[in-house]
Specification:
Length: 229
């Protein structure tokens, strides 16, 4: 039994070099047209630029009919990209690489990705929303819960139970970790500092000198003698 191999026809766009776009009226190379297998020539009716413009206009009309707001993207110069979170146009060096996207870069800039990652961590680990963290910050006046001086930057929690305790600065948060959250260690450290506090030694010396100047024992005896008489 003889078998025959079906012939594969060559696409028409491979045999033509130029095509006219009816939208802009320009004759462009076939590389400026997207492929469309349903068209006789295998190419889209409009060039890439006009096709994108028509799709954008159609999207805007649909959004307006549904009563929804339009997402307006500004013009971005070459070597830059627009971030929808911070709404800033940043250089490509401020974006992470992402091989799955069309342009090879992440959808959000590095700074916004860091903020999102922090928020997702708080939500996943502690069930906190950005509003919850803001409320904690306001209740502490934006200051560390321990030193009351430096800005609160870290969410402190009990490593044994996982219970939240407050917002601390980096040095205080690290100090608690170095002392392993052990109250006895911290009390011993306080006592140690007081024993070696030069300002306390100076205060003791001044107090002793003042008592000697007052000569309290002699004053007490004089007072007793006066009362007895």
């Amino acid at each position: 039994m003889r078998t025959f191999k079906r012939g594969v026809s060559e696409p028409i766009y491979s045999r033509i070099e130029m095509k006219r776009c009816p939208e802009c009226g320009e004759t462009k190379p076939t590389s400026e047209f997207t492929r469309n297998a349903e068209r006789p020539d295998g190419l889209c009716h409009y060039c890439k630029v006009c096709y994108r413009a028509r799709c954008k206009a159609s999207y805007e009309r649909r959004r307006l009919r549904m009563g929804k707001s339009l997402r307006v993207r500004p013009e971005v110069p070459p070597g830059h990209k627009y971030c929808p979170d911070c709404q800033q146009i940043r250089q490509l060096g401020e974006w992470h690489r992402n091989a799955t996207t069309r342009d090879g870069y992440s959808s959000h800039c590095k700074f916004c990705r860091a903020v999102r990652g922090r928020q997702n961590y708080f939500k996943r680990q502690y069930g906190l929303t950005p509003d919850d963290v803001t409320a904690m910050m306001v209740s502490q006046n934006g200051k560390c819960a321990i030193c009351k001086d430096r800005p609160a930057e870290h969410l402190d929690h009990d490593h044994a139970t996982g219970k939240l305790r407050g917002l601390t600065c980096f040095p205080c948060n690290g100090g608690l970790g170095q002392f392993k959250d052990n109250i006895e260690y911290l009390e011993s450290a306080i006592e140690y500092l007081r024993d070696h506090d030069s300002s306390l030694d100076e205060l003791r010396e001044k107090t002793t000198t003042r008592l000697q100047q007052l000569n309290l024992p002699a004053a007490i005896e004089t007072a007793r003698a006066t009362l007895a008489s």
